[in-house]
Amino acid sequence: MVARVNTVAFQGIDVLPVDVQVQISGGIPAFSVVGLPDKAVAESRERVRGALHALGLSLPAKRLTVNLAPADVMKEGSHYDLPIALGLLAAMEVLPKEEIQDYVVLGELALDSGIRPVAGVLPAAVHANAIGCRLICPAACGSEAAWAGGGGNADGILAPRDLLGLINHIKGIQVLTAPSPKLAPQSDSRPVGPDLADVRGQETAKRALEIAAAGGHNLMMVGPPGSGKSMMAACLPGILPPLSPQEALESSMIHSLAGTLPEGGLLRHRPFRDPHHSASLPALVGGGARPRPGEISLAHHGVLFLDELPEFARATLESLRQPLETGQTLVARANHHVTYPARFQLIAAMNPCRCGNLGDTALECTRAPRCAGEYQDRLSGPFLDRIDLQVDVLPGFPT
């Protein structure tokens, strides 16, 4: 007899259904997980064993086989713990199989049977809502999942804190309350950051910021150190229009996959990402051994601020050319391709030369103006062609 539990796998922001099949058969006692599991999934055997032991349950001394279908899709992450545990409980006839067939399940198990938060709950909840299934997720992610139905509808969502509470709910011994969606208080309706009205002087640069905000243009500010380039860039989210519901959902799904969604609720403000110039190419555009969203995807529907622009690696900057045109980034691997949305507004800042004092005869270096040409030549013409506006920022703090 085979017990089945529904869960999901992630490819970019796409959600793929996964069928967790659990079989208990005769033979030499063993616990096998098949279906292209990664290290985190393979280790779920010990977490599941420990969680069941905490409840006073022991796995039968038989051959236990867990198949994650489809078998040709890589399974990554710790969210397979809970569906494997429920499949085992159903196969052991501790839980009725028909009670868990209509749920999409994800969650990581602790050794004391607690259910820990996992990444990707919001996309999984949207998928479950689309196919007409209910959802079981960790309690810490319940408010995040509640937004999947639109308007904070938490019907059909179970968010238990531990495995025992979930078992008791399924068996009708206790009732789990539906999670409540979280919203920031009304006093937090403005983005956190400096206000453009607090910037004194720099009228040309502020006007350029307003034009960039109105038209969604990319902007580069060139000026000496201390002229306020970074401060003015941080003011941009405050003058951008608020996120629409669809934009908030799209941005929140990306942050959910990255595990950076704040307090389990939807994003209310446009993202502002400012990676350091030492950021690697995968960190900026996405990728890695386990492909994850990069900074440009985390800035989707928001602002990406690159300070000290020429200090970024040449290959890293060139990798932004295609996302700036298409609004998405493609992470290509030998066995699969992953696409992440990346429709962001680029704001860049740079000094006119390495020392930053070009034009100031008292402070500029002895290699001026040749050093300025060498410094600015780090930026290619095709990359600069994708920056709509360029403004010179005056030195000092004019009044």
Features:
399 residues, alpha/beta, Ribosomal Protein S5, domain 2, Rossmann fold, 2 domains, 15 helices, elongated
Mind sketching the topology for me?
Layout: E1 2-11, E2 14-25, E3 30-34, H1 39-42, H2 44-54, E4 63-69, H3 81-91, E5 103-105, E6 108-109, E7 115-116, H4 121-130, E8 134-136, H5 142-145, E9 157-158, H6 163-170, H7 203-215, E10 219-222, H8 229-239, H9 245-258, E11 272-273, H10 281-285, H11 295-298, E12 303-306, H12 314-318, H13 321-326, E13 328-332, E14 337-341, E15 345-350, H14 370-376, H15 381-384, E16 389-392
Parallel strand pairs: 3-4, 5-8, 8-9, 10-15, 10-16, 11-12, 12-15
Antiparallel strand pairs: 1-2, 2-4, 6-7, 13-14
Helix pairs in contact: 2-3, 7-8
What this model shows, in words?
This protein has helices at residues 39-42, 44-54, 81-91, 121-130, 142-145, 163-170, 203-215, 229-239, 245-258, 281-285, 295-298, 314-318, 321-326, 370-376, 381-384, and strands at residues 2-11, 14-25, 30-34, 63-69, 103-105, 108-109, 115-116, 134-136, 157-158, 219-222, 272-273, 303-306, 328-332, 337-341, 345-350, 389-392. The longest helix has 14 residues, at 245-258. It has 399 residues and is an alpha/beta fold. Mean pLDDT is 88; it is low at 184-189. It has a five-stranded parallel sheet. Helix 2 packs across helix 3 (81-91) and helix 7 (203-215) packs parallel to helix 8. It has two domains: 2-170, Ribosomal Protein S5, domain 2 (2-Layer Sandwich); 186-392, 3-Layer(aba) Sandwich (Rossmann fold), CATH 3.40.50.
